[in-house]
Write a structure and sequence with these properties.
Elements lengths: L7 E5 L4 E5 L4 E5 L7 E3 L9 E6 L4 E6 L6 E6 L4 E7 L3 E2 L5 E2 L3 E10 L3 E7 L2 H4 L2 E6 L4 E6 L6 E6 L3 H5 L3 E3 L4 E6 L9 H20 L8 H13 L31 E2 H13 L3 H14 L10 E2 L10 E2 L13 E2 L10 H17 L6 H18 L18 H20 L5 H17 L1 E2 L4 E2 L14 H4 L8 H14 E2 L2 E2 L13 E3 H13 L3 H12 L11 E3 L5 E2 L5 H20 L3
Length: about 600
């Protein structure tokens, strides 16, 4: 039933998203939005609902995206018959200028040859399968209702075939094009196959136009475009929030307990996403995220959390769904995330860097720049009063706070970018410059370890950490700095295994990590490029790209031994780093003599 790897495609429309397996099964879908309870959750438990297609005979199945779109095509074929399955969530601009992105999914099943017979397996399980879901046959649709006296939830299915045959899971002769529309809302006008094709055509045009606005590169252009399209699918249109991944509780290691809910907006992840999408030319998504940030800080003394809900929720209480077995029986299944109350000082610098990149390009073209300037001053004030304190670090250690090098570097970044933003706005901030130099001096004194010959994970440690490699990317050190070069070399020696990077190897709250954190390998490859080892970097990069799934998608982790994808999926971190690294190869190539 479950695939032995994350062989899934993602579709979405800015309201929510769905995962569709290599054999055409919808195994993960939350409605009406990303953080809602699942209606199809077989990814986490066989009883948690799915929507699939079965055929009479075993078929060869091929899956791909329609070029430059987020429409997924799955082709089933034997010698006698063939049909294609087109999956998408409608998204397009209306005549009024607003966007149409309803909480619904459409499947178009089109016969290609012969006389295929299919069975539609429609088994929704509402509210994470917490109760019993019952499906009733109405005149124009099937309605699935949660049998629960204290809670109401419903899901609607529309089709142009006999609904009782779907409900009874009977085989259907595919004599003509069949459509299925799964909707969170009851449709006032019953969908038709013509409307399905209409939505398909406009959605296809939307994605083609979106990709057309993406900057072109000479090398790795297909990988850049697919990653950009994936990042776009993780953006919540209603508020501008960007989620870390579509899923919850996909384990970092099968059978272990590092299972977290990633359907929230981490300030760090999202700021990195908008910075790279800005490089590709997508300013609207950047603007919307900055608006989201401004709206999160209504008062001048408001401190940023490390993460928020997609509607700006501040409390993300973690809960365990004991009734679900978990992905490949890897319990627990968690919803919510207790990390929201952690203190991680690096988030301010990463956000400030993203704001600076946007303002540096479009200072005079930002309508809310006065509000944004107050946010900038607020961030600098917070960092100035807190940078000397320990925190949980980028990896959200749940144990004792420490003086993590990465956090200190990003505190320096917060002051540095704050100063640069002030200069853009003709404001002088000499006190900020003093604090910036104090931070830098402390890092150079306490983060460098002579024994390790590297900047280490935290003050006084000998342990290395891949996040420290970012100090060059954020401008704290130059790529030719001997200390940075030594850190890259030491990190390679200590943390690289078969071309894949550990985040760190010292034990954390759950023991030593046993899988590679994908973004860290991209960071390492980028560092190799920067210190001039481009040939080695390309070897590692091409090898890492080969570990993606069949559609070029990455999760959070890669297993060192089997190379299977692990962790939540698809992961924004992984795809933004892929784009950034690919851009570095292109820039290096453009500087090389011809």
């Amino acid at each position: 039933m479950h695939l032995d790897n994350l062989h899934y495609g993602i579709i979405g429309n800015g309201a929510s998203g769905a995962l569709i397996s290599k054999d055409g099964a919808i195994d993960w879908f939350c409605l009406p939005h990303f953080a809602s309870p699942s209606v199809f959750g077989r990814l986490l438990d066989s009883k948690a609902g799915w929507l699939g297609i079965e055929t009479v005979d075993e078929a060869v199945i091929q899956q791909s995206y329609l070029e430059n779109t987020n429409i997924l095509k799955t082709v089933f074929e034997t010698d006698e018959w063939a049909f294609e399955l087109l999956d998408f969530m409608p998204r397009y601009q209306k005549v009024s200028g607003s966007y149409y992105y309803p909480p619904e999914l459409t499947r178009i099943i089109k016969p290609l040859k012969g006389n295929p017979k299919i069975k539609v397996i429609y088994e929704p399980a509402l509210e994470y399968a917490k109760g019993h879901t019952v499906t009733h046959h109405k005149e124009t649709h099937l309605i699935s209702i949660l049998e629960n006296e204290t809670q109401y939830d419903a899901l609607y299915l529309y089709s142009n075939t006999a609904l009782n045959r779907i409900r009874n899971q009977e085989f259907i002769s595919l004599d003509e094009t069949l459509f299925l529309t799964v909707s969170y809302n009851e449709k006032l006008d019953s969908p038709t196959v013509e409307k399905a094709w209409y939505d398909f055509d406009l959605t296809k045009a939307y994605w083609l136009n979106w990709v057309q606005r993406t900057k072109e590169y000479e090398h790795y252009t297909d990988e850049i475009k697919r990653s950009a399209l994936t990042l776009k699918l993780l953006s919540y249109d209603k508020t501008g929030a960007i989620i870390a991944a579509l899923t919850t509780s996909l384990p970092e290691t099968i059978g272990e307990v590092r299972n977290w809910d990633y359907r929230f907006c981490w300030i760090r992840d999202s700021s990195m996403v908008i910075k790279v999408l800005s490089q590709l030319g997508h300013r609207k998504i950047v603007r919307r995220f900055i608006d989201y940030i401004i709206d999160l800080i209504p008062e001048k003394d408001e401190k940023l959390q490390i993460m928020y809900g997609i509607h700006g929720e501040r409390t993300l209480t973690e809960e365990t769904l004991e009734h679900l077995e978990g992905y490949h029986h890897s319990k627990p299944v968690r919803i919510g995330n207790d990390a929201y109350h952690q203190k991680q000082n690096d988030i301010y610098g990463i956000l400030m860097d993203a704001i600076y990149v946007e303002l540096a390009q479009f200072t005079l073209d930002f309508e809310r720049k006065e509000e944004l300037w107050e946010v900038v001053k607020n961030i600098v004030w917070i960092v100035a009063h807190n940078w000397e304190k320990p925190d949980k670090g980028i990896w959200e250690f749940r144990g004792e706070d420490k003086h993590f090098t990465f956090s200190k570097v990003l505190c320096w970044v917060a002051l540095d970018r704050g100063i640069k933003i002030a200069e853009l706005l003709n404001k002088k901030k000499p006190k900020w410059e003093t604090i910036r130099e104090q931070i830098k001096a402390q890092i150079e004194e306490h983060a460098w370890n002579e024994e390790a010959n590297a900047y280490t994970q935290y003050y006084g440690a000998t342990a290395l950490d891949a996040s420290v490699l970012l100090m060059e990317q954020y401008g704290f050190v130059a790529p030719e700095d001997p200390r940075f070069i030594a850190t890259v070399k030491a990190t390679e020696k200590e943390l690289l295994r078969d071309g894949l990077m550990y985040r760190y190897k010292n034990q954390d709250d759950f023991g030593e990590p046993s899988s590679s954190f994908t973004i860290c390998t991209f960071w390492f490859i980028r560092s190799l490029i920067k210190i001039g080892e481009v040939k080695k970097a390309k070897t590692y990069f091409d090898q890492l790209l080969s570990y993606s799934n069949h559609l070029g998608l990455f999760s959070e982790d890669v297993d060192f031994n089997s190379k299977r994808l692990l962790g939540n999926f698809p992961q924004a971190y992984s795809h933004l780093a892929l784009i950034d690294t690919a851009i570095q190869f292109n820039e290096t190539s453009s500087k090389a003599p011809h």
